[in-house]
Amino acid sequence: MGESSCGSVRPIFRKEDKTLHSLIRHGAAASVETPASWLVACTVVAILALTSGTPWVLVVALKPVAAELGVARNVPALAGALAVLGAGFGGIAMGWLAERYGVRRVVAAGSAMVGAGHLVASSGGVWTLCLSYAFMLGLLGNAAINQPLLVHVSRWFDRHRGSALALVASGQYLGGMLWPAIFERALQAWGWRHTMATFGLLQFALVAPLVLVLLRPLPDDLRARQLASGPRRGASVLGRPPNQALALLAVASFLCCIPMALPTTHLVALCTDLGLSPARGVAMLSVLQLCAFASRQFWGFLSDRIGGLRSVLAGSVCQMLAIGGFLLTQDEIGLFTAASAFGLGFAGIIPAYQMTVRELFPAAEAGWRMPSVSLGGTLGMAGGAWLGGVMYDQFGSYAPAFALGVAFNLLNIVLLSTLLMSRKQVQSAALDPA
Asked: Is residue 130 in some structural domain?
């Protein structure tokens, strides 16, 4: 990092310089974790559970939206992918804004934009749908919620950071258990347009009070202590320059999120193609999310003990095996089994990447490094969701898309294994300088 990088974080230290330098001189202090840390984490879980309905509207209504608009399935799938893409690119800028203007302001503004975005998306045709999902729901909406909240929670914890990040990430899967079933019934009663608009208004009405009342800012002394922690600025990471290591982690995240997006986006449509009712597909999706929610704390517990990078690798292997399961079965019991295994396997991957960034890089750089790695995953999720629709339209089956997902997952495992071997070599060289 150059001089400009150091200058970019100077305003963060201005109020706490004396405290910060004292902490650096006298070494590590007591843990930053308090009961308030867990209150913040639980508040964030609730916020993410409420705001996570955005992608599920299109997942559940994929076929009705395509039929009403007179387009192929890849068009609404593309709209969902654009929202994910916008959230990924916007997350870096929103992390910067949250550092300077406060996480509560940024998250409240993001929730308002999500509400407005759903109203606009439900009011027009294909272009309205795609543009509102890309900019209002993605770039300015969910981008201002997801990454700023993850960075915020990570700074409230040091001893149980992996468990806290896993708990917070579970909010999206808690929403994944609830919203698909609600949307499936609402679609039958109101249609997709009214369902989408109502969700946008509802989430803002519930999220705004949580943000303003329960989402606490990090106290100045804890903030100074957190910013002083972590590896030294500019130190090599995994035997590489820091930005090169960050780029490799982002590529690994991209590779594993392409297959991750396939079942979560196309499972309901896959079930109906095989003769099952939409309600059974939604139930299967809810089971997937339930298994992810139930297993996520195990993955957080594991990250606290074996480290984030090893946890990512373990989760990626489990995910690849589960993706392969969708290729081996077409009956209802087999699909429920594959969906359950997929939920159990992939649940810990995303928070483990965030844990890895906090382990390998200075805490003061978390505001932009965590969203940067997440951007790789976002590109993978967007690409996987869109690719599944394109390959179905080309082949009339989801099997080729799932097979390609396995191949991407295998590349991810190779890259993660290479990074782990580099880490071992660096550790061995440190223990034996000769």
From this structure: yes
